[in-house]
Design a protein that fits this description.
There is one protein chain. The chain is 36% helix and 31% strand. A hairpin with a 6-residue loop joins β6 and β7. The chain is elongated. The model has no long low-confidence stretch (mean pLDDT 92).
């Protein structure tokens, strides 16, 4: 049982009376088929309408594959009346009308400016994109297409809807002829500008689209994805970005036209500051290594350095740098630990020092409750769950006892 799709003729009707002709049960949901409907089902790249039937929410509208019936999905099984009052959510409907009509206009604009055909279209609640069969468009062509599209909008051209046979369609200057199919084609014409086959909902005059603004370009192989916004979405996008620009202007104490330059200058300054900081940190770690060797426990000729750091003192990368500074000296073994959200152990030695670091690391890691580590005789490391400095010190002490046994 199919139903009449009245949105084809009139996308502006949002309230209507209808009769339920079939119910479809799916667990705790019910879908109803009406004798006629103004609810648009998901199809052709356009999302479905939402609204109510007898004040019960319609949360999805789909097309049944076997007979093309329109299914109105409800979050209930309690709609027993056959006569229903339908209410289509106008804000959502009009948004889709603006976006879809805007897509027709922008697609034709890209053809006229750059001979770039639209090969893909996607409209969601948050984004609107077309895929162009060209990745070579330059910025001027994109701006020209956007300008042309907005001129067509502001000329407030009529949008005509008509139905033709496939034979008639082949004689018309359609932007793209759909695959051969049975039945008539529904054509949407933006007066003297674009003619295409489409089953979606559209505004009556191009001026209702309001404005088209391209917001993002993304090249994908031999195609260009164009993300844009029409009408209210374009206004929302402008409000967001204008707010960001104003905040940045206040933070950077500069005009809007100087924000990019100011940010680039700040990035360069930060890069230079990070370079200087890294150099200073390395110098501090060099002196830290010198101090630790002076305080090291001597086991024969070997200086055994042990140290446990807190998370606010050093990070794993810096601990490796420190280990490298330590082992640049002769006869040094370093047993280093870090107590943080993830505990770390680093055992290393100079080439002329005794000891097998890979034999020390696993017993130490067991004290931390981990077996994730390993390495060579010269350097071994591993990590465990977060713990305190006392537990990490116990692991270091265990490794130190084993090391002394190896040396002796």
């Amino acid at each position: 049982m199919t139903s009449q799709r009245l949105y084809y003729q009139n996308a502006y009707t949002t309230r209507f009376e209808a009769t339920i002709v079939e119910r479809v049960r799916d667990e705790d949901q019910t879908a109803v088929i009406l004798d006629h409907t103004y609810f648009y089902p998901t199809s052709g790249g356009q999302p479905h309408d939402m609204g109510t039937l007898n004040n019960i929410a319609v949360h999805n509208v789909t097309i049944r594959e076997k007979d093309a019936a329109v299914l109105h999905w409800l979050d209930t099984t309690d709609l027993w009346q056959n006569e229903v009052s339908g209410h289509v959510n106008w804000a959502r409907r009009f948004d889709h009308m603006q976006q879809h009509t805007g897509q027709h206009i922008l697609s034709q604009a890209f053809i006229q400016v750059a001979q770039a055909e639209t090969v893909g279209f996607h409209l969601s609640d948050n984004t609107l994109t077309i895929d162009l069969h060209s990745s070579q468009l330059n910025p001027n062509q994109v701006e020209e297409a956007e300008y042309l599209a907005n001129q067509i909008i502001w000329q407030n051209r009529p949008v005509h809807i008509r139905s033709v046979t496939m034979a008639q369609a082949k004689e018309l200057p359609l932007r793209k002829l759909p695959p051969v199919r049975q039945g008539n084609l529904r054509l949407i014409e933006i007066d003297k500008f674009d003619l295409s086959a489409c089953g979606g909902t559209h505004v009556r005059h191009s001026g209702e689209v309001g404005i088209i603004k391209i917001v993002k370009l993304e090249r994908q192989n031999n195609q260009l994805r164009v993300e844009f916004a029409c009408g209210q979405r374009a206004l929302n996008d402008y409000r967001l970005k204008n707010s960001i620009v104003n905040q940045l202007s206040a933070e950077l104490t500069t005009g809007a036209d100087e924000i990019v330059t100011s940010v680039q200058r700040s990035k360069e300054e930060n890069k230079e500051n990070r370079r200087r900081l890294k150099k200073q940190q390395e110098q501090l770690l060099f002196f830290e290594a010198k101090t630790l060797i002076e305080q090291a426990k001597m086991v024969g000729k070997t200086a055994v350095v042990t140290r446990v750091f807190g998370e606010d003192e050093i990070d794993p990368g810096q601990m490796r740098v420190l280990g490298n500074h330590l082992t640049q000296n002769d006869h040094v073994v370093a047993l280093l630990g870090l107590a943080a959200n993830k505990s770390q152990l680093l055992f290393c030695r100079s080439n002329d020092a005794p000891g097998e670091m890979n034999q020390l690391i696993k017993p130490a890691l067991q004290i931390l409750g981990s077996a994730a580590g390993g390495g060579s005789a010269v350097m071994a490391q591993g990590g465990g769950p977060g713990t305190d400095q006392e537990r990490v010190q116990q692991a270091i002490d265990k490794a130190e006892r084993l090391l002394i046994g190896q040396i002796r």
